[in-house]
């Protein structure tokens, strides 16, 4: 606060030359000499430039993120996708035929139909168009998951797993047809 008052008192003669320093009231606690402007603002020594910063790098070699599938992998992806859709369609058609034939002739089969797959069970009782559309939507999601995994830096080694699991599930559904 003292410095601010002293600075203001020093600036008064610059802006108001008709007013002299002797006419201004100087507070008693101010000990700064007004005739020496260097005392008001002490010189600050120049600051040395900061030392160069140290950049820490990871000692492990950086694994390049995969840009996507290669030519052979794209062919594998599309073949697996076609197999996923083919197995899913066969499973859905066989399940739908079994349900329809049981509705037409309830005494033709020894045991009533029940879906054993817990993932497919909610879809079985839907109307036919909704059953097929929702099932294809699920298998499209499986293929999209595999595609995204193939482009991931972390999961690119395991991109075939979702498609193989869905193929195995659909094949199991086809093999349990009564």
Ends distance: 95 Å
Characterize the largest beta sheet: strand count, sense, and whether it forms a barrel: none
Q: C-alpha Rg, in Å?
A: 41 Å
Total number of β-strand segments? Answer: 0
Name the overall outline. elongated
User: Please, what is the average pLDDT?
Assistant: 78
The parts where pLDDT drops under 50 for at least 5 residues are: none
Beta-strand content bin: under 5%
Please bin the fraction of helical residues: 40-55%
Q: How would you classify the helix and strand content by structural class?
A: mainly alpha
| Number of spatially distinct domains | 2
The total of helices stands at 6
Order of helices and strands: HHHHHH
In short:
This protein is mainly α. Helix content is 53%, strand content 0%.
What report would you give on this structure?
The structure is a single chain. By secondary structure, the protein is mostly helical. It has helices at 2-15, 37-40, 71-104, 121-124, 128-150, 161-175. It has two domains: 2-40, no CATH class; 71-175. Helix 3 (71-104) packs antiparallel against helix 5. The longest helix has 34 residues, at 71-104.
């Amino acid at each position: 606060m003292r410095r601010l008052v002293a600075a203001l008192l020093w600036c008064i003669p610059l802006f108001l030359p008709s007013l002299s320093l002797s006419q201004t009231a100087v507070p008693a606690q101010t000990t700064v000499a007004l005739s020496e402007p260097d005392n008001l603002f002490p010189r600050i020594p120049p600051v040395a430039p900061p030392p160069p910063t140290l950049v820490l790098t990871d000692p492990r070699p950086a694994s390049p993120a995969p840009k996507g599938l290669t030519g052979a992998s794209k062919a594998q992806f599309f073949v697996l996708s076609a197999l996923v859709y083919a197995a899913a369609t066969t499973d859905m058609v066989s399940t739908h035929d079994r349900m329809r034939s049981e509705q037409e002739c309830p005494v033709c089969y020894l045991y009533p139909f029940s879906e054993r797959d817990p993932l497919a069970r909610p879809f079985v009782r839907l109307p036919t168009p909704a059953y097929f559309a929702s099932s294809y939507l699920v298998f499209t999601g499986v293929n999209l998951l595999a595609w995204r995994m193939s482009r991931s830096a972390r999961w690119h080694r395991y991109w075939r797993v979702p498609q193989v699991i869905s193929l195995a599930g659909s094949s199991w559904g086809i093999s349990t047809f009564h």
